[in-house]
Amino acid sequence: MEDNSLPLNDFHVKKTNLLLNRLHMFLHGIALLSLFYYRITTLIHNDNIPLLPYILVFITELILSFIWLLSQASNWKPITRKVYIERLPENEKLPSIDVFICTADPNKEPSLGVMNTIISALALDYPSDNNKLNVYLSDDGGSFVTLLAVKEAWKFAKFWISFCRKYEVMNRCPEAYFLNEEIGDVRKFDRSHEFVLDKKEIEKKYDEFKDCLVKIVAGTSTIVSKDHPPLIEVISDSKDQAMDSDKEEMPLLVYVAREKRPSHHHNFKAGALNVLLRVSGLISNSPYILVLDCDMYCNDPTSARQAMCFHLDSKLSPKLAFVQFPQTFANISETDIYDGQWRYLWQKWHGLDGIGGPILSGTGFYIKRKALYGIQNVQEDVDLIQLQKSFGSSNEFIKSVYTINKPNIRNFSDDSTLQKEIQFLASCSYDKDTNWGEKVGFRYFTIVEDYFTGFNLHREGWISVYIEPSRPCFLGASPISLGEFLIQNTKWLVGLMQVGLSRFSPLLYGSLRMSTLQIMGYAEFAYVPLCFSYIYCLAIVPQLCLLRGIALYPPVSSPFFLVFSFLFLSSQLKHVQEVLSTGHSIQTWANEQRFWMMKSATCFLFATLEATMEKFGLTKVSFLPTNKVVDVEQAKLYQMGIYDFQAPPLFMVPLCSLYILNVASFFIGLVKILQDQKGNEMFVQAFIPFFGMVLFFPLFEGMVLRTDKGRVSPFVSIVSCVISIIILFLALVFSY
Ligand SMILES: O=c1ccn([C@@H]2O[C@H](COP(=O)(O)OP(=O)(O)O[C@H]3O[C@H](CO)[C@@H](O)[C@H](O)[C@H]3O)[C@@H](O)[C@H]2O)c(=O)[nH]1
Ligand SMILES: [Mn+2]
């Protein structure tokens, strides 16, 4: 029985972090003010300084300081949460859950991975009688391969689920289970003869399932259709039903391919999720929804119960929109050279949790259906026209909006009116002239539907919570090559910048409706791409001025030299402290620094350009799914912690050009400093390229020392050389 006196969850403020963060904030803030003072007074009193480089440096310092200021919101009050699932009410009293899984392209998202995600969701540790657990797959590729594969997955899942339940298996993703033999969880059973036999049997079934998938993939077209009617199918084979009457209850599994027409914009993942919201509304209509990307399998079957510890907490629940778990990845290498685990980001989520809730992060969250519908309190007296404007013209669907908590499972297969209605809800024009994507459901405005939907919910007064259990509840597949990482980051940053440049800018749209800290938290993400200006300036201007003997920073003998040194040390040491306190090594600090600069020089720049161009109607932004097919060569390099520089030249050329420019400036500059005896004035300007040169030593290796496939291609090296020589030449010839 539920014990009402004991809370279902608990949180505590991370006091040491809070104190360190605020101390850093205070000291670093004062140092920044001193820097501004130095810059302004030098500008006013010193007639000899060359204006252009000086002002460039100052402006970009201001931009970086602005982003730093915004980023302090997520440092303000970091908290961590704990749940007590043993205190949840008994199974019969748990609310039902719909799981939404999205896939878009069987060529980029191999079926085996997608099916494993589906199977792991079907096997969640949650009551599956009375349709407490329902899984919906959205297939945006509308591909026959996926439909056939789902049917096979369902057949295998029946055996798999009973195996998992019988032996209390923790890792319910079959591929992962058979890959990393689990010892701890089945210790009770591992010596039993029965277990050994059952395990052999299920492993054989899994191999058969895999063989079957291979055949399906080989024999079916994987073309992604952009022009097809909606297809919705409840997966179950009635033939087996009688035979299986003694077997366990299975969750419901529904395959949904929404209608696609070239003439209709499909709004990417947000569009797909909204179709699932509507379709599931007429079938299971669960009050809570778990959203998963097709490559994010359930690694801990208790995630639903963990989430319910918040959703069923009577104090939190009325305002709680979603419970966010971190995105963790199964395939991060030891060295994590591309910062694929997003350590830095999830730290921020703890901080945002302390000021109203984490940002929605696309996958691994349990969200309240009502929050997505924009109805905090159901008002019975709203008129139908108004409701149709909000939810579209399906009266059946509108009815479902008012019966969320009374799931009314309907037998889809025998009910042709229901089938028709669902087809209508999955049609590509249903959204048109309604509030879908604007005030209802996942929001369409940007390709980062997660960030923007969460932002809107927070703005409407909802809160969210972040829980990071020690055993990751979900594990995904991270990209493993530099190129993929940079492309993926650019995609996100374009989306964020789209918001930043629009009327939805958190600074405007959020004001009056959200707390200042929360606005800052959202604004940091929307504007962080602007840091590209700082990195470009820092990687070019001081170096060129060094060659010309122009000092941009205070001499070592000046008291302001201390200010600059302090700023550098304070930011680096703060980063080191965060890295160490989250259990990582100094190597992680270097990797994160390097990757942040790489992103700034490429993703941040391109995101700003693309979002600006879109703003002026010069381009159209689209959401291309990240490639999840593993290249063996790339995987090898990645595991060894060696950079794969075979990224698109568009990314590599800026990086290599800046590197060459810095190496050249450092050595020529050093000679010049020694000749002119200008060590005092030029110290900072020699230090900057030196730091870059050392930090980016892997680029030097890639261009000069390496001969393997992942080195920088000679073409990129030559183009970069030419570009840096031109810049150096121009800098030496022109006067400022
Ligand atoms: O038109 C589309 C495009 C994508 N997807 C699905 O969306 C998911 C995420 O796509 P992916 O290519 O893996 O994007 P990532 O860049 O890895 O995704 C991150 O960023 C997205 C945008 O912010 C979030 O939606 C994701 O949850 C988050 O993991 C995948 O399951 C896709 O199949 C669709 O269903 N329809
Ligand atoms: Mn992904």
From TrEMBL:
It is found in: Endomembrane system. UDP-alpha-D-glucose binds at residues 108-109, 140. The active site is at 140, 450. Its main location: membrane. InterPro entries: Cellulose_synth, Nucleotide-diphossugar_trans. Mn(2+) binds at residues 269, 293. GO terms for molecular function: glycosyltransferase activity. GO terms for cellular component: endomembrane system. Keywords: Cell wall biogenesis/degradation, Glycosyltransferase, Membrane, Transferase, Transmembrane, Transmembrane helix. GO terms for biological process: cell wall organization. The keyword Glycosyltransferase applies. It is a multi-pass membrane protein. The chain crosses the membrane at residues 20-39, 51-71, 524-544, 550-569, 650-670, 682-700, 712-734. This is Cellulose synthase-like protein G2. The lineage of its organism: Eukaryota, Viridiplantae, Streptophyta, Embryophyta, Tracheophyta.
